[in-house]
Specification:
Blueprint (H helix, E strand, L loop, with lengths): L14 H30 L4 E6 L4 E7 L1 H6 L4 H6 L3 E2 H4 L21 E5 L13 E7 L2 E5 L1
Antiparallel strand pairs: 1-2, 1-6, 2-3, 4-5, 5-6
Length: 145
């Protein structure tokens, strides 16, 4: 059969795939809007909120901090997020360190809460009067000033 063109085609119904793709896109947009709303609320409240991990030696790794917490500590956002080697000595006035609980040593289950009084230490080493609420949430500590 010389000179005869043959065309082979496949037809398939992709309706379910298109519907699923649209649903996933809508869910993604909804999650993005929720994240933006959360971020707006997190950064607009007038109390400092930080989320961090603390190692056994008292070192601190910040996961999240709102603008008010950064202001309370006396830093600009850029200074705060580029600073390395955070520890309790950077964050809490020396005479108040014995009053603060030791993170994971007393909070073992997500949702546990402990209330205590301490003064955050600002970058200038000036104390900032405040009370703290500590909650273990997914193995991260959250302090509210």
């Amino acid at each position: 059969m010389k000179g005869v063109s043959i065309c082979i085609g496949v037809v398939r119904d992709i309706t379910d795939e298109v519907v699923m793709k649209r649903r996933l896109e809508q869910e993604s947009l909804q999650r993005q809007r929720q994240a933006e709303e959360y971020s707006h609320i997190f950064n607009s409240v007038f109390c400092g909120i930080v989320q961090y991990r603390m190692d056994r030696q008292g070192g601190v790794k910040f996961e999240k901090a709102n603008l008010e917490a950064i202001r309370i500590f006396g830093y600009t956002p850029e200074e705060f997020w580029t600073k390395e080697n955070w520890g309790l000595s950077n964050l809490i006035v020396e005479e108040d360190r014995t009053k603060t609980p030791k993170g994971r040593s007393f909070l073992r289950k997500p949702g546990q809460v402990s209330q205590f009084e301490y003064r955050p230490r600002q970058k200038t080493e000036r104390p900032y009067g405040s009370s703290g609420l500590l909650r273990l949430s997914r193995f991260l500590l959250v302090r509210v000033f």
